[in-house]
Automatic annotation (TrEMBL):
Domain of life: Bacteria
Domain MobA-like NTP transferase: 5-160
Pfam families: NTP_transf_3
Keywords in alphabetical order: Magnesium
GO molecular function: nucleotidyltransferase activity
Name of this chain's protein: Molybdopterin-guanine dinucleotide biosynthesis protein MobA
UniProt entry tagged with the keyword DNA-binding: no
Amino acid sequence: MSYVAVVLAAGHATRFGSDKLSATLDGEPLLFHAIRAARAAPVSRVIVVARPGLDTGSWAGEPSVEVLRIESNALSDSLKTGIAAAADADGAFIFLGDMPRVPHAEAARLAKTIGHAYAAIPRHDGRPGHPVLLASAAFADIANLTGDQGAGRLLRTRDDVVFDDCTDPAIHFDVDRPEDLGWLAGRDRADKN
């Protein structure tokens, strides 16, 4: 199977109050953590859908990182742009730019789990998280999304979605406000002790 990773990074982060994806965590922009997680997935390339002016870094080596710039901050537009660029793949992992602690091994687990399903989603304590692996069968449905909706509502209506129960709650950790960065850094220090 041929997979690509799509990192969604075009939002304006109104709750954060400033440029969230450029905020520093562990000495580098928040977005870089998401790109690194996407590159650790079993993919041939990584597509970053970003707003104009966002520093997406410079990534040497494989898999390659391609940046697509869009003006819209609507989640559906970001997702549609990334999926359209992934049209030749058998599936696409969807990573969110504000989720810096996604476990790197989770994408490989999803690739083993998906089989012939429409999508594979990690789950911790009964709650779905990220990344999500969409089979190419989902691409046409993604193209019909509108407004500020992602694939969540669509996936909740399907009975051919499989779940990978994982032990890492980081599949839920996103950054919405500046204090979330401090919480993540503090949590990481506590986990190391």
